[in-house]
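To: structure desk
From: M.T.
Subject: fold request, one chain
Message: Could you run this one when you get a chance? Sequence is below, nothing fancy, just the single chain.
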Amino acid sequence: MNREVRAVIRWVPASRGGRIAPPRPAAGYATFARFENDPGEALGAWSLRIFSAVEFQEGEVIDARVGFLVDEAPHELLKEGERFEFLEGRKVVAKGVVLPEAVEAPQRISDFELALLG
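Reply: Done. Structure tokens follow.
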């Protein structure tokens, strides 16, 4: 049984070493993820998938449903407030944070809030 959580994800722009463009559509995208609470990957290396996404901030940011690809993954890493990065090889292409279900994402976020995402 795969568990999905809500996350806000910011794609790292190419000017900062990220992707040339975010995947379109973002739903279905899956890649390796590194977690703030497991930086040395003591719990193993796992991939996250974006199951659904709503774009805002001209597609730079998405409000998404994410989850691991396999049931054996350490689902405890997907708790509210957990920060993660999506990697393609060694390149960080996105940064995200797991949100509480009740928090409503705005249609536009400030530069300060963007900086908090990374």
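Reply (cont.): The chain is about 5% helix and 40% strand. Let me know if you need anything else for the meeting.
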